[in-house]
Amino acid sequence: MLNHKTIAFCWPGTPTTSTIITSGKNLAQLILSYPPTEQIIMVGHSHGGNVINIASQLLNTATTSTFETNFLLSLTPTTRTLEPCLLSLFCTALMHIKTMLEISGRQWRSPKNYLIQAAYLLGTPIDCQTFMPSMNAIEHVYNFYSEGDLIQPVLGLFQRTLPAHERIANLSITLKDAARAATNNPSHSELHDTLVARWLLCIPHELKRQKVGNFESFTYDHGRIVIDSEHEPQYSKNN
Fold this sequence. Notes:
Layout: E1 7-8, H1 17-32, E2 41-45, H2 47-62, H3 67-72, E3 81-82, H4 87-104, E4 116-122, E5 138-145, E6 168-177, E7 182-184, H5 194-199, H6 205-209, E8 222-228, E9 234-237
Parallel strand pairs: 1-3, 2-4, 4-5, 5-6, 6-8
Antiparallel strand pairs: 6-7, 8-9
């Protein structure tokens, strides 16, 4: 399946700064155990996204310190990691993008210029002081959020969006489910709904290439995506 392997990256899930930082260190160790040519794509829901962000900070530090050398001496290669609750979502997304690529006769490849090729953050509480992703370690960050998510802001202590950057996309998600005849701003848990899973890894590159759902207009800015149970997702740029 696209030569990708997926397993769950297990961390305690306790939403404290110390736990997130410790888990981020463990994730950074794991990423550094991969061969330099390995293509790494990560998905994190809620504070799992901040574990990825902390790992990226440490991976950036590794380029100018002994961090990488010390860890590589003690680690052996392992398989790609995801949060446990997102394993099935990621596999669903891989299956869908595999089908699309087979139809178009293309193969999914990306140059290895960054330790993490893409990070998909779903409802991650944003704290740019502590949990800002390092864009020296991550090529692209896709920050999916919903105005219907009452958990992400944590009573105003966190933000919904990341600062503007040429490789960071802040994307507001709306779900349209024909079975329920409803369009809604998803809740915190609905951000890893199967409707999202179906299209996640196609956003934005494969949809942009195929000129589906106005994704040819995709920019790394604030945007809105409507994901429909019966049609391809639709993209629009926020004014």
